[in-house]
Automatic annotation (TrEMBL):
Source organism per UniProt: Faecalibacterium prausnitzii
Top-level taxonomic group: Bacteria
Cited InterPro entries: Homeodomain-like_sf, HTH_RpiR, RpiR-like, RpiR-like_SIS, SIS_dom, SIS_dom_sf, WH-like_DNA-bd_sf
Protein's GO biological process: carbohydrate derivative metabolic process
Gene Ontology terms, MF aspect: carbohydrate derivative binding; DNA binding; DNA-binding transcription factor activity
PROSITE patterns from the UniProt entry: HTH_RPIR, SIS
Keywords: DNA-binding, Transcription, Transcription regulation
Protein name: SIS domain-containing protein
Pfam families noted in UniProt: HTH_6 (PF01418), SIS (PF01380)
Domain SIS intervals: 106-246
All copies of domain HTH rpiR-type, residue ranges: 1-75
Length: 246
Protein backbone atom coordinates (compact mmCIF):
# COMPACT_ATOMS: atom_id res chain seq x y z
CA UNK A 1 0.00 0.00 0.00
CA UNK A 2 1.36 3.42 -0.96
CA UNK A 3 2.45 5.76 1.82
CA UNK A 4 1.40 9.41 1.79
CA UNK A 5 -1.83 9.35 -0.20
CA UNK A 6 -3.45 12.75 -0.86
CA UNK A 7 -6.19 12.00 1.69
CA UNK A 8 -3.62 11.14 4.37
CA UNK A 9 -1.69 14.35 3.72
CA UNK A 10 -4.91 16.34 3.87
CA UNK A 11 -5.60 15.01 7.38
CA UNK A 12 -2.20 16.03 8.83
CA UNK A 13 -2.05 18.96 11.22
CA UNK A 14 0.63 21.66 11.14
CA UNK A 15 3.15 19.79 13.33
CA UNK A 16 2.61 16.50 11.52
CA UNK A 17 3.25 18.30 8.23
CA UNK A 18 6.71 19.19 9.55
CA UNK A 19 7.38 15.47 9.98
CA UNK A 20 6.06 14.78 6.47
CA UNK A 21 8.22 17.56 5.01
CA UNK A 22 11.39 16.16 6.58
CA UNK A 23 10.59 12.60 5.44
CA UNK A 24 9.97 13.47 1.79
CA UNK A 25 13.24 15.42 1.74
CA UNK A 26 15.20 12.55 3.35
CA UNK A 27 13.41 9.34 2.27
CA UNK A 28 16.55 7.21 2.32
CA UNK A 29 17.80 8.45 5.71
CA UNK A 30 14.66 8.28 7.85
CA UNK A 31 14.38 4.43 7.82
CA UNK A 32 17.62 4.29 9.79
CA UNK A 33 16.78 7.03 12.31
CA UNK A 34 15.45 6.53 15.82
CA UNK A 35 12.18 8.21 16.65
CA UNK A 36 13.91 10.77 18.87
CA UNK A 37 16.31 11.67 16.06
CA UNK A 38 13.46 12.22 13.59
CA UNK A 39 11.52 14.28 16.13
CA UNK A 40 14.57 16.46 16.79
CA UNK A 41 15.26 17.03 13.07
CA UNK A 42 11.61 17.88 12.38
CA UNK A 43 11.42 20.08 15.53
CA UNK A 44 8.45 18.19 16.97
CA UNK A 45 7.82 15.79 19.85
CA UNK A 46 8.02 12.00 19.61
CA UNK A 47 4.27 11.96 20.31
CA UNK A 48 3.70 14.00 17.12
CA UNK A 49 5.78 11.47 15.16
CA UNK A 50 3.65 8.63 16.53
CA UNK A 51 0.43 10.46 15.64
CA UNK A 52 1.86 10.99 12.15
CA UNK A 53 2.58 7.25 11.81
CA UNK A 54 -1.00 6.42 12.78
CA UNK A 55 -2.41 8.84 10.21
CA UNK A 56 -0.41 7.26 7.39
CA UNK A 57 -1.73 3.80 8.26
CA UNK A 58 0.99 2.39 10.50
CA UNK A 59 0.65 0.87 13.98
CA UNK A 60 3.81 2.55 15.20
CA UNK A 61 7.16 4.02 14.25
CA UNK A 62 8.83 0.64 13.69
CA UNK A 63 6.20 -0.39 11.13
CA UNK A 64 6.39 3.02 9.47
CA UNK A 65 10.17 2.75 9.05
CA UNK A 66 9.79 -0.74 7.60
CA UNK A 67 7.18 0.43 5.08
CA UNK A 68 9.24 3.47 4.13
CA UNK A 69 12.37 1.35 3.64
CA UNK A 70 10.42 -1.21 1.63
CA UNK A 71 8.93 1.51 -0.56
CA UNK A 72 12.32 3.12 -1.16
CA UNK A 73 13.92 -0.25 -1.91
CA UNK A 74 11.28 -1.35 -4.38
CA UNK A 75 10.79 2.02 -6.05
CA UNK A 76 13.41 1.51 -8.74
CA UNK A 77 11.67 -1.54 -10.18
CA UNK A 78 8.08 -0.50 -9.53
CA UNK A 79 5.67 0.27 -12.32
CA UNK A 80 4.09 3.69 -12.60
CA UNK A 81 0.29 3.66 -12.74
CA UNK A 82 -1.62 5.04 -15.70
CA UNK A 83 -2.64 8.66 -15.09
CA UNK A 84 -6.11 8.36 -16.64
CA UNK A 85 -7.90 7.54 -13.40
CA UNK A 86 -6.24 10.39 -11.52
CA UNK A 87 -7.04 12.82 -14.33
CA UNK A 88 -10.67 11.76 -14.45
CA UNK A 89 -10.96 12.26 -10.69
CA UNK A 90 -9.26 15.67 -10.94
CA UNK A 91 -11.48 16.86 -13.80
CA UNK A 92 -14.58 15.77 -11.89
CA UNK A 93 -13.51 17.90 -8.90
CA UNK A 94 -12.64 20.90 -11.08
CA UNK A 95 -16.13 20.76 -12.52
CA UNK A 96 -17.82 21.48 -9.18
CA UNK A 97 -19.31 24.94 -8.50
CA UNK A 98 -16.98 25.41 -5.52
CA UNK A 99 -13.86 24.80 -7.59
CA UNK A 100 -15.17 26.97 -10.41
CA UNK A 101 -15.67 29.82 -7.93
CA UNK A 102 -12.09 29.40 -6.65
CA UNK A 103 -10.76 29.57 -10.23
CA UNK A 104 -12.75 32.74 -10.86
CA UNK A 105 -11.45 34.33 -7.67
CA UNK A 106 -7.86 33.44 -8.57
CA UNK A 107 -8.27 34.78 -12.11
CA UNK A 108 -9.62 38.05 -10.73
CA UNK A 109 -6.64 38.38 -8.40
CA UNK A 110 -4.21 37.91 -11.31
CA UNK A 111 -6.12 40.24 -13.65
CA UNK A 112 -6.08 43.07 -11.07
CA UNK A 113 -2.39 42.69 -10.19
CA UNK A 114 0.26 45.00 -11.62
CA UNK A 115 3.00 42.38 -11.19
CA UNK A 116 2.47 38.63 -11.55
CA UNK A 117 4.95 35.93 -10.49
CA UNK A 118 4.78 32.16 -10.96
CA UNK A 119 7.05 30.38 -8.50
CA UNK A 120 8.38 26.82 -8.60
CA UNK A 121 11.56 24.76 -8.70
CA UNK A 122 12.41 21.44 -10.34
CA UNK A 123 9.53 20.06 -12.40
CA UNK A 124 7.26 22.74 -10.94
CA UNK A 125 9.78 25.35 -12.12
CA UNK A 126 9.33 24.22 -15.72
CA UNK A 127 5.56 24.50 -15.28
CA UNK A 128 5.96 27.97 -13.73
CA UNK A 129 7.93 29.17 -16.76
CA UNK A 130 5.33 27.71 -19.12
CA UNK A 131 2.51 29.38 -17.18
CA UNK A 132 4.27 32.74 -17.23
CA UNK A 133 4.77 32.49 -20.99
CA UNK A 134 1.15 31.44 -21.51
CA UNK A 135 -0.16 34.39 -19.49
CA UNK A 136 2.15 36.79 -21.31
CA UNK A 137 0.98 35.45 -24.68
CA UNK A 138 -2.57 36.31 -23.63
CA UNK A 139 -1.66 39.89 -22.75
CA UNK A 140 -0.93 39.65 -19.01
CA UNK A 141 2.82 39.94 -18.44
CA UNK A 142 4.05 37.41 -15.90
CA UNK A 143 7.46 36.33 -14.68
CA UNK A 144 8.48 32.76 -13.88
CA UNK A 145 10.68 32.50 -10.77
CA UNK A 146 12.64 29.23 -10.58
CA UNK A 147 15.68 30.44 -8.66
CA UNK A 148 15.18 30.18 -4.86
CA UNK A 149 17.59 33.10 -4.42
CA UNK A 150 15.80 35.41 -6.86
CA UNK A 151 15.44 38.89 -5.31
CA UNK A 152 11.79 39.91 -5.19
CA UNK A 153 11.91 43.68 -5.73
CA UNK A 154 8.87 45.80 -6.51
CA UNK A 155 8.10 49.48 -6.11
CA UNK A 156 5.97 50.48 -3.10
CA UNK A 157 2.18 50.21 -3.42
CA UNK A 158 2.44 47.83 -6.38
CA UNK A 159 -0.26 45.18 -6.39
CA UNK A 160 1.23 41.69 -6.70
CA UNK A 161 -0.21 38.26 -7.42
CA UNK A 162 1.87 35.09 -7.22
CA UNK A 163 1.05 31.53 -8.20
CA UNK A 164 2.92 29.07 -5.96
CA UNK A 165 3.57 25.73 -7.67
CA UNK A 166 4.66 22.77 -5.56
CA UNK A 167 3.56 19.14 -5.76
CA UNK A 168 3.95 18.48 -2.04
CA UNK A 169 3.40 22.07 -0.96
CA UNK A 170 6.32 21.60 1.42
CA UNK A 171 9.37 22.56 -0.67
CA UNK A 172 11.46 24.79 1.60
CA UNK A 173 12.84 27.01 -1.17
CA UNK A 174 9.39 27.65 -2.63
CA UNK A 175 7.93 28.39 0.81
CA UNK A 176 10.78 30.85 1.43
CA UNK A 177 9.91 32.75 -1.77
CA UNK A 178 6.20 32.60 -0.93
CA UNK A 179 6.85 34.18 2.48
CA UNK A 180 8.93 36.91 0.84
CA UNK A 181 6.03 37.70 -1.47
CA UNK A 182 3.57 37.58 1.40
CA UNK A 183 5.63 40.18 3.25
CA UNK A 184 5.16 42.44 0.22
CA UNK A 185 1.37 42.03 0.52
CA UNK A 186 1.17 39.79 -2.54
CA UNK A 187 -1.97 37.76 -3.12
CA UNK A 188 -0.91 34.10 -3.16
CA UNK A 189 -2.50 31.29 -5.17
CA UNK A 190 -1.28 27.76 -4.39
CA UNK A 191 -1.43 24.99 -6.99
CA UNK A 192 -0.47 21.84 -5.10
CA UNK A 193 -1.57 18.29 -4.31
CA UNK A 194 -3.02 19.03 -0.89
CA UNK A 195 -5.15 21.86 0.45
CA UNK A 196 -3.64 21.15 3.88
CA UNK A 197 0.00 21.67 2.86
CA UNK A 198 2.18 24.52 4.12
CA UNK A 199 1.92 26.29 0.75
CA UNK A 200 -1.86 26.07 0.87
CA UNK A 201 -2.05 27.39 4.41
CA UNK A 202 0.20 30.31 3.47
CA UNK A 203 -1.89 31.22 0.41
CA UNK A 204 -5.08 33.21 -0.01
CA UNK A 205 -6.52 30.78 -2.57
CA UNK A 206 -5.69 27.11 -3.04
CA UNK A 207 -6.33 25.08 -6.18
CA UNK A 208 -5.55 21.49 -5.09
CA UNK A 209 -5.45 18.57 -7.50
CA UNK A 210 -5.09 15.66 -5.06
CA UNK A 211 -2.85 13.54 -7.30
CA UNK A 212 -0.77 10.78 -5.77
CA UNK A 213 2.92 11.64 -5.45
CA UNK A 214 5.10 9.28 -7.50
CA UNK A 215 8.83 8.90 -6.96
CA UNK A 216 11.18 6.27 -8.38
CA UNK A 217 14.85 5.30 -8.01
CA UNK A 218 16.93 5.70 -4.89
CA UNK A 219 17.44 9.38 -5.77
CA UNK A 220 13.67 9.83 -5.25
CA UNK A 221 13.09 11.77 -8.45
CA UNK A 222 9.60 13.25 -8.64
CA UNK A 223 7.50 11.73 -11.43
CA UNK A 224 4.14 13.06 -10.27
CA UNK A 225 1.96 14.03 -13.22
CA UNK A 226 2.02 17.76 -13.96
CA UNK A 227 -1.03 17.61 -16.23
CA UNK A 228 -3.43 18.90 -13.53
CA UNK A 229 -1.13 21.87 -12.87
CA UNK A 230 -0.94 22.59 -16.60
CA UNK A 231 -4.71 22.46 -16.91
CA UNK A 232 -5.18 24.84 -13.99
CA UNK A 233 -2.65 27.33 -15.33
CA UNK A 234 -4.24 27.37 -18.79
CA UNK A 235 -7.73 27.65 -17.29
CA UNK A 236 -6.58 30.56 -15.13
CA UNK A 237 -4.85 32.30 -18.05
CA UNK A 238 -7.94 32.07 -20.27
CA UNK A 239 -10.16 33.48 -17.51
CA UNK A 240 -7.68 36.30 -16.96
CA UNK A 241 -7.74 37.07 -20.68
CA UNK A 242 -11.55 37.23 -20.68
CA UNK A 243 -11.48 39.58 -17.69
CA UNK A 244 -9.04 41.88 -19.47
CA UNK A 245 -11.51 42.15 -22.35
CA UNK A 246 -14.28 43.38 -20.04
Amino acid sequence: MELFTPQQIKNLNELELLVYQYIIEHPNTVPFMRIRELAAEAHVSTTTVLHFCKKVGCDGYAQFKWKLKEQAGSAQGSRLPDTLGELQNFLWKVGTPEYDAALDEAAGMIARAERVFLVGIGNSGSIAEYGARYLSNLGKFALGVTDPFYPITVTPNTTIAAVILSVSGETKQVLHLARQLKEKNAGLIAITCSDQSSAAKLSDITLPYYSSVHRVTTESYDLTSQMPALYLLEALARRVYNRLLE
